[in-house]
TrEMBL record:
Residues 142-551 form the Aminoacyl-transfer RNA synthetases class-II family profile domain. Residues 197-200 are annotated as: Aspartate. L-aspartate binds at E173, R219, H444, R485. ATP binds at R219, D220, E221, Q228, E478, G530, L531, D532, R533. It catalyses: tRNA(Asp) + L-aspartate + ATP = L-aspartyl-tRNA(Asp) + AMP + diphosphate. Catalyzes the attachment of L-aspartate to tRNA(Asp) in a two-step reaction: L-aspartate is first activated by ATP to form Asp-AMP and then transferred to the acceptor end of tRNA(Asp). Its main location: cytoplasm. This is Aspartate--tRNA ligase. It is an enzyme of class 6 (ligase). The gene is aspS.
Length: 581
């Protein structure tokens, strides 16, 4: 028998028991008379004790053990003389009578401790060792718990988990597809799904009514901290529903997860229209853990001959509470921040609301005390506050101010990882103008339904048509999104036309879906959550990498197995692909 207990299990109540444990050597300390070895498994760490009076071969074996050796020990549970209240087994130790080395270990390339000396690259190359570390393992345990609770909730609501294919034809969701050559169909390719979108809609046509799947999706995009080429969605669809039904159902799921996994009562999730989100936060995924809403200033800023404001479409600012004491250096740093090419602003105008009530701005030449008072009123500022103002074309300056708002809030410690502020953003525009291709693109995807009351604008003002589309945002992260779908063949075909598809192209790519709509498609809608992002928020992490067992690096590589890799010429030939010279 390899073990009677795990390494996280024994307590004072087990004193005197003869037990067998198996695990990895975490560390060993030789204190002359005594040798202590910590043995670790998934469940915890238990201290093993050997002393000088022990059988000499046993003692010698213990002294020989290296880090990460796999051992099996048998011994008696005794009370520790110096207790460790930091670990669950800290009141006991095992007086070992038998020690077997099940496998030796090479010296690990980094220390397997909570705080490791291993950098990112080495940890990824030896990910199986990294996964032995508590913080990484705990993230995966959290992920497991969340998946279980998701299934429990959705099963309780009558959702059926259905698997959809991984080798499919591309669905346009805005990203590039990963493609797979077909040996049996020379010159033809499958695409890996960016999401199971069309399949879940077809399941609604089939009458499945409530579908979900915890499913891998693939997008060949440039990577960032919150993106991986393959990621996991909680993909859901419902028939005979309106937007309200979906928001309620998945607000329920979100609350259930927070309650069962984190013990947090989320309360009712507020809603905000896309237009308001852009106006008040300059973002369709506002971080609402703190206020600092935008204040529009055209009324009080224009008409005073300050050229920057005169020429701007929009003058807009935020009130950084209690920041009037910011030094020149801090303000310069904020200006440099917004001038970085990624943000591209020209600068910041600021005004300090001094303790004596006076207001002093960086553009005093143009604004007298009365006008500055009007600024203060617009911002509801109080003595001690700092007003940060930017100007430019409306959409651009809003996005720039959003970056500044997040930066300032970060500096002020307002983005606390243990505070959770969810928000539904609703009423997204249906279409989005794309400069590069000089045409409209679907903002969500081409299957999203326009709001019935806006359909008449499709011809005249396509950019003004709102969609029955919604996102769930938590702490400024988009964790989910979806829409009510089109279920009418003619409307879907009209939509493809507006998106620049010729009737032939639409037929070729989506003929199957439009045909399905002619066989009694019910009204339906759904959404998908990003599981990786949701878990990383629960774990308080900025990156999704550490909630994924075997993630890819920023170049989309798995450095452990060394993928992607070239394939043999014979394999290429079989796939009728060019052999590289
Ligand atoms: N398929 C969509 C996505 O991946 C989600 C949805 O509309 O249900 O974003």
């Amino acid at each position: 028998m390899h073990r009677t207990h795990t390494c996280g299990e024994l307590r004072l109540s087990d004193l005197g028991k003869t037990v067998t444990l198996s695990g990895w050597v975490q560390k060993s300390r030789d204190l002359g008379g005594m040798t202590f070895i910590d043995v670790r498994d998934r469940y915890g760490v238990t201290q093993l004790a050997f002393n000088v009076d022990d059988d000499q071969t046993l003692r010698a074996k213990a002294l020989d053990l290296g880090r990460e050796y796999v051992i099996k020990v048998t011994g008696t549970v005794i009370e520790r003389s110096s207790k460790n209240n930091k670990i669950a087994t800290g009141e006991i130790e095992i007086k070992v009578s038998e020690l077997d080395i099940l496998n030796a270990s090479a010296l690990p390339p980094f220390t397997i401790e909570d705080e490791t000396d291993g950098g990112d690259d080495i940890r990824m190359k030896f990910r199986y060792l990294d996964l032995r570390r508590n913080p990484v393992r705990e993230n995966l345990i959290l992920r497991h718990k969340m998946s279980q609770e998701i299934r429990r909730y959705l099963d309780g609501e009558n959702f059926l988990e259905v698997e959809t294919p991984v080798l499919i034809k591309s669905t346009p969701e805005g990203a590039r597809d990963f493609v797979v050559p077909s040996r049996m169909n020379p010159g033809e390719f499958y695409a890996l799904p960016q999401s199971p979108q069309t399949f879940k809609q077809l399941l609604m046509v089939s009458g499945f009514d409530r579908y979900f799947q915890i499913v891998k999706c693939f997008r060949d995009e440039d990577l960032r901290a919150d993106r991986q080429p393959e990621f996991t969605q909680i993909d859901c669809e419902m028939a005979f529903v309106e937007q309200e039904d979906i928001l309620n159902m998945f607000e329920g799921l979100t609350k259930h997860l927070f309650k069962t996994v984190k013990g947090v009562d989320l309360g009712e999730v507020p809603r905000m229209t896309y237009d308001d989100a852009m106006r008040l936060y300059g973002s369709d995924k506002p971080d609402t853990r703190f206020g600092m809403q935008f204040v529009e200033l055209n009324d009080v800023a224009k008409g005073h001959d300050f050229p920057v404001f005169e020429q701007a479409e929009l003058v807009i600012g935020i009130n950084a509470k209690n920041c009037a004491s910011y030094t020149r250096k801090q303000l310069d740093a904020l200006t440099d921040f917004v001038k970085r090419p990624q943000i591209g602003a020209t600068g910041i105008v600021y005004a300090r609301h001094n303790e004596d009530g006076s207001i002093k701005s960086s553009v005093d030449k143009f604004y007298d005390a009365t006008t500055l008072d009007a600024w203060s009123k617009a911002f509801h500022s109080e003595p001690g506050d700092l007003l940060l103002i930017m100007a430019g074309p409306t959409d651009k300056v809003r996005k720039q101010l959003n970056e500044l708002r997040l930066e300032v809030a970060g500096q002020l410690g307002l983005r606390d990882k243990n505070t959770f502020s969810p928000l539904w953003v609703i009423d997204f525009p249906l279409l989005e103008w794309d400069e590069e291709s000089a045409r409209y693109h679907a903002m969500h995807h081409p299957f999203t339904s326009p709001k019935p009351e806006d359909i008449h604008l499709l011809e005249s003002n396509p950019g003004d048509v709102r969609a029955n589309a919604y996102d769930l945002v938590i702490n400024g992260v988009e964790v989910g999104g979806g829409s009510i779908r089109i279920h009418d063949r003619d409307l879907q075909s009209n939509m493809f036309k507006h998106l620049g598809f010729s009737p032939e192209e639409a037929q070729k790519q989506f003929g199957f879906l439009m045909e399905a709509f002619t066989y009694g498609a019910p009204p339906h809608g759904g959404l998908a959550f990003g599981l990786d992002r949701l878990v990383s928020i629960f774990a308080g992490l900025d990156s999704i990498r550490d909630v994924i067992a075997f993630p890819k690096n920023n170049s989309g590589r798995d450095v452990m197995i060394d993928a992607p890799s070239s394939i043999a010429p014979a394999q290429l030939k079989e796939l009728t692909l060019e052999v590289k010279a």
